[in-house]
């Protein structure tokens, strides 16, 4: 059964190649095969994903380990980058990262508990019939701990308890540097609740943060396939790179064309898709993968 979105593999490959790690080091059975990246499948098996994580951990060990890998990948997650500049609370950002992870791995059980204004406990657990992956848990913990750095704050402190098929993390988040943080703990908690209800923040990534089992996912996928079929081959390439959070300049370098050409393609894609912004386009793309 295919369980993990292929876009997660592509993001890991992209940042690894940018740091000088050959993709051949990470691909090939029992890991993900090259042909799967361009084929019709949008998800890969959990076992292949586990092997990919093991290879990532080994390949990145001379470069700072999973900490550096997780930070590099965080900077490429489009739905986080689309709203990170607007998120005022480190706790809110961490919850956003957890929500995205729940969407990407819907069969992983996620439990969270607020221990205080800046403390959060998170538990991730796998089904008994799933292969255990300590590398996955270590990479996940590093990714979550580094998420505050996306908004200019220090890394969160984290304690991790790792047992077969389960990890428990206890995060101590850095203090917020916003005006809200100058109030009492009660005011800070009220601010968190208010942020969770601000609809315009969630609108840009609503497709991503909804459960993939929601009733609207089929309709969203149908609409996506309809306008995606109207794209040219080159526009489809541009769309897939945009969905990985890659900048126009890097897209131009990868496709060997002018940056202005990429801008024209994106404008045409927005018109054909009916989306108003790059973030909405990313949300439509990732939402259809569910």
Automatic annotation (TrEMBL):
Q: Which InterPro entries match?
A: Sig_transdc_resp-reg_C-effctor, Tscrpt_reg_LuxR_C, WH-like_DNA-bd_sf
Record domain HTH luxR-type: where: 230-289
Q: Which UniProt keywords apply?
A: DNA-binding, Transcription, Transcription regulation
- GO MF annotations, alphabetized: DNA binding
Keyword check for Magnesium? no
A GO BP entry: regulation of DNA-templated transcription
Q: What's this protein's name? A: Helix-turn-helix transcriptional regulator
């Amino acid at each position: 059964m295919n369980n993990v979105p292929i876009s997660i593999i592509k993001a890991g490959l992209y940042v690894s190649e940018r740091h000088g790690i050959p993709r051949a080091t990470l691909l090939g059975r029992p890991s993900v095969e090259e042909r799967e990246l361009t084929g019709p499948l949008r998800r890969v098996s959990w076992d292949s994903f586990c092997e990919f994580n093991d290879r990532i951990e080994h390949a990145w060990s001379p470069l700072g380990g999973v900490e550096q890998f997780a930070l590099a990948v965080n900077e490429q997650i489009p739905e986080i980058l689309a709203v990170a500049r607007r998120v005022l609370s480190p706790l809110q950002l961490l919850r956003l990262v957890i929500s995205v992870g729940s969407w990407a791995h819907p069969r992983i059980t996620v439990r969270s508990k607020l221990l205080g204004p800046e403390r959060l406990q998170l538990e991730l657990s796998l089904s008994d019939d799933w292969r255990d992956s300590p590398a996955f848990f270590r990479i996940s913990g590093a990714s979550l701990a580094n998420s505050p750095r996306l908004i200019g704050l220090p890394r969160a402190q984290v304690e991790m308890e790792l047992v077969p098929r389960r990890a428990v993390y206890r995060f101590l988040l850095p203090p917020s540097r916003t005006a809200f943080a100058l109030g009492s703990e009660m005011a800070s908690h009220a601010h968190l609740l208010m942020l969770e209800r601000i609809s315009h923040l969630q609108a840009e990534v609503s497709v991503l943060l909804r459960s993939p089992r929601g009733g609207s996912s089929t309709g969203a996928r149908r609409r996506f396939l309809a306008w995606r079929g109207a794209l040219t081959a080159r526009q489809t390439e541009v769309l897939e790179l945009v969905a990985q959070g890659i900048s126009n300049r890097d897209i131009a370098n990868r496709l060997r064309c002018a940056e202005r050409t990429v801008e024209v393609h994106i404008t045409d894609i927005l018109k054909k898709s009916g989306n108003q912004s790059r973030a909405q386009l990313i949300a439509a793309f990732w939402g259809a993968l569910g």
